[in-house]
Design a protein that fits this description.
Elements (H helix, E strand, L loop, with lengths): L2 H16 L1 H13 L1 H23 L2 E5 L10 E4 L5 H9 L5 E5 L8 H7 L3 E3 L4 H16 L4 E3 L20 H6 L3 E7 L17 E6 L10 H4 L2 H16 L1
Parallel strand pairs: 1-7, 2-5, 2-6, 3-4, 3-5
Antiparallel strand pairs: 6-7
Length: about 240
């Protein structure tokens, strides 16, 4: 492990311990003022993400912030690194909740913060539970909380876009929320491309594409909205090369 890797591990460990009282206060606040609790939680998590990027020596180029709508949206991105989540969460104004693996919901401390920012834990082995998770995402979007999903379902090891899972955009369709394509490059060079759990400085580019709603698509394209988003991401990734 590099010195940066150790610093990240120590930072996260002690942050989760020392913020236990804050998580308890947020849990109480959610009962009386859920919007304010969410705002505070997102603000805190964004600070953590930015600190982690600074510790890692990561520089970020952000394109297309003007494309982000002034309403709750579903952000749909490519996924090749754990740092995709950190970069995305740090750059979206106001923060965002993520659709994550259900195993993350079992990690003490971390799972609490994820719930406070309206993350969802998806069990891909159970179709019924998966549908229920999507419906929760619909409710979040309707309540004004933006969500982010990586429709490939797992991290790409080659940098090439994988297959987009069929139901990945359902929550936006049902909530009548905008879909924002997101393209990220450079995150694998921070961690995954390095041997021995080493974190190295890297330059990352994240681009937000033009949003669309299902109602705006021609009838013939509505069944293939996933391909519409995938093509937009592919074009942005090509432009980042």
């Amino acid at each position: 492990m590099t010195f940066r890797s150790i610093c990240i591990a120590v930072y996260v460990f002690f942050y989760l311990i020392f913020t236990t009282p804050m998580r308890a206060r947020l849990k109480k606040l959610e009962k009386t003022d859920p919007q304010e609790a969410s705002r505070i939680a997102q603000e805190q998590v964004q600070k953590v993400f930015k600190h982690l990027l600074k510790i890692s020596g990561v520089t970020i180029e952000v394109n297309g912030l003007e494309n982000i709508p002034d309403e709750a949206s579903l952000f749909v991105g490519n996924h090749s690194s754990y740092f995709d989540i950190i970069v995305t969460g740090a750059t979206i104004p106001g923060g965002v909740g993520f659709v994550a693996k259900d195993s993350l919901g079992k990690i003490p401390g971390l799972s609490s913060w994820m719930k406070h920012i309206h993350c969802l834990f998806l069990d891909r082995s159970d179709v019924r539970k998966g549908l229920q998770t999507i419906l929760e995402g619909v409710d979040y979007l309707k309540e004004g909380y933006s969500m982010c999903i990586y429709p490939e379902g797992t991290r790409s090891t080659t940098g090439e876009l994988g297959e987009f899972k069929g139901g990945s955009l359902k929550m936006a369709q049902r909530a009548k929320a905008p879909v924002v394509p997101v393209a990220i490059t450079g995150t694998r060079d921070i961690f995954e491309n390095n041997p021995g759990l080493r974190v190295y400085p890297s330059h990352v580019t994240i681009s937000f594409g033009k949003p669309f709603k299902f109602s705006d698509l021609p009838a013939a394209e509505k069944k293939f909205a996933g391909e519409h988003v995938k093509k937009a991401i592919e074009d942005m990734l090509a432009a980042q090369q």
